[in-house]
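=== Structure Prediction Worksheet ===
Name of assembly: unnamed complex
Input type: mixed (protein and possibly other molecules)
Chain count: two
Listed entries:
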Amino acid sequence: MAFDRLIEGIARLQNPTVAGLDPKLDYVPASIKQACFDKYGKTLEGAAAALLEFNKAIIDNICDIVPAIKPQAAYYEMYGWQGVRALAETIAYAKSKGMFVITDGKRNDIGTTMEAYATAHLGVTEADGESFEAFGADALTVNGYLGTDGIKPLTAVCRERDKGIFVLVKTSNPSSGELQDMKLENGATVYEQMGRMCESWGEELPGKYGYSGVGAVVGATYPEQLAEMRAKAPHTFFLVPGYGAQGGGAQDAKNAFDARGLGAVINSSRGIMCAWKKQGLSEDDFAQAARTEALRMKEDILSTIGEITL
Amino acid sequence: MAFDRLIEGIARLQNPTVAGLDPKLDYVPASIKQACFDKYGKTLEGAAAALLEFNKAIIDNICDIVPAIKPQAAYYEMYGWQGVRALAETIAYAKSKGMFVITDGKRNDIGTTMEAYATAHLGVTEADGESFEAFGADALTVNGYLGTDGIKPLTAVCRERDKGIFVLVKTSNPSSGELQDMKLENGATVYEQMGRMCESWGEELPGKYGYSGVGAVVGATYPEQLAEMRAKAPHTFFLVPGYGAQGGGAQDAKNAFDARGLGAVINSSRGIMCAWKKQGLSEDDFAQAARTEALRMKEDILSTIGEITL
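=== Predicted Assembly ===
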């Protein structure tokens, strides 16, 4: 089960974090941009090449200390198919460095369309007898608003290919409560109901450390709900956004973990990518600064949860 | 407002339908596939080229009778960045033929990430002073589970660039009720609550025919809910899947329209793309068969709603 691999990586590195790679062109040092524009012109191809170089430098500098990356699809789509190619190349590069890759796409649809997304991001595409991994991530974030019809095509691919999904449960943003916090007649909130569905969907993908292949996104910015869902969804592994730039701290994120220090991976995107600013360094030092921040974040979280034991 | 343009196209052609372009390689005639594989090899590039040729032939054959296409992103992502390039090229081609393009991506995220999706699909990407339309659709389907933070970045782009969005409200699939039909403590169902949010989000994008730039996806497979939401969300334009292959008929879809025959556009994907099978024709006649089916569908729906008047 894919999250067993993620959990083992977390335990080996004693680091329950994931680096979000949501690159904007503004984050990329002028020297890299200039080299790419010189090579490809001021085009989407040039921009995408710059993002890829930026990502590779960060991956090179963190792959021995951080178990996973989470590229956010939106930032690549923004640069057209050329950007989407940079996403595929970022995923392949991170995997070649032994990292676990979570594509943050929040995809959702039904039936054969969801099969197409599952195939695209986690599976194998057949073209006239030949097989290709179109994107080849280890896990994909998804939105469960459409119910079981939108999830079963994913769990089928997960079982077959040792992959996982994270379903949006309680998101980290200020307005997440507008729908998610509403109380249902059965007494549960909408996010709690979604968490129940995750527990149910996960039954067919059991993992050896107690967590299934159907995880959940629960934000660090809502520490009470994080604690509530940790208790109510004991087999559901959490992907936790909202640490750092969005305001969540280690004490908030702590609620995502079980007594063994398992059960969650905490994401930081801008905190890692733009660490050079906070550290008062030059933009050309972004990759080294990312490493320094990744180590600081690891220590910050480990200091609250203690040693991670399998 | 973008849906004014769509509504005008519908009225001009007296056809409130959209052709879903969700191409699978299996749908593409052997002659097209062979030509593309001969040119590009048995690669994702070859597969994507075949999809594009297939789409172009359908567009050529329906652009004078159908006002809009709805390419579903999943079927392009399945063929990697090469497939995503075919999506961009399909959109550009349909626009060059005067069609309105709805990218069915069901995208969702928050803040700057949603801005990136809005820029990607509806806006303009800046790269070091140069501007590019990455995908350039007229409208995008989105998922509102994350609340207002996930919608405002879209409405900003819609206002600036004359675009629209369709928010998932009541989807056409069998399990859509698992979450969407649940009753909230306030007496509304989850889908009804989402419809209310659409009405509210749409207030800042009023249209001249009474429909805002924030539309909703409501399935033809749930005709009662379609009628309910038509009454409860009077300013929300509907994108209606589920006609044809999923089981919805013209009498079901009728509930999506107001007394003028406005208020909705009905989608057919497989019905159009695979029409040659139903018509007992050769696969090489797929484009002509698509036209025949598009005309049949138009008559089928018009016969229930009558003349469309602005």
